[in-house]
Amino acid sequence: RHTQRYVFSLISGCGIFFIGGVVSVYHGIQGVVVGHVVEHFSVGLAVLALSFLIEGYSLRVAYAEISEEAHRLNKQVREYVLSGGDPMNVAVLFEDSAAVLGA
């Protein structure tokens, strides 16, 4: 039962990575082939800023959760993450970190 958490975290992470990659490549090819003038640039920046704020908040909550759990186990956050702490929390932390960094 405990190993299911690791398997589902891996499947989820791989699925998100694969779908994101495929969609990015599709939009990149479509942009090169079709090409168009960018309109409403300010709307895109507003959406980007809102996404950064929301993902930043989620990252802060995930880090606080992991930090609290690591403190409870008398570990540093890095040590907790590398030692295989709760895979769900670690997956959320990495996903949100990637989202905030724009990866």
Automatic annotation (TrEMBL):
Protein location: Membrane
Keywords for the protein's UniProt record, in alphabetical order: Membrane, Transmembrane, Transmembrane helix, Transport
Xref: Gene3D superfamilies: Cation efflux protein transmembrane domain (1.20.1510.10)
Pfam families, sorted: Cation_efflux
GO process annotations (BP): intracellular zinc ion homeostasis; zinc ion transport
GO molecular function term, any single one: monoatomic cation transmembrane transporter activity
UniProt KW Transmembrane helix keyword: yes
InterPro entries the UniProt entry points to: Cation_efflux_TM, Cation_efflux_TMD_sf, SLC30A9
Secretion signal span: none
A GO cellular component entry from the record: membrane
Keyword Membrane: yes
Residue intervals of the Cation efflux protein transmembrane domain: 5-100
Bilayer-spanning residue ranges: 7-29, 41-63
Membrane topology term: Multi-pass membrane protein
Domain of life (superkingdom): Eukaryota
Protein's recorded name: Cation efflux protein transmembrane domain-containing protein
Organism: Hemiselmis andersenii (Cryptophyte alga)
Lineage of the species this protein comes from: Eukaryota, Cryptophyceae, Cryptomonadales, Hemiselmidaceae, Hemiselmis
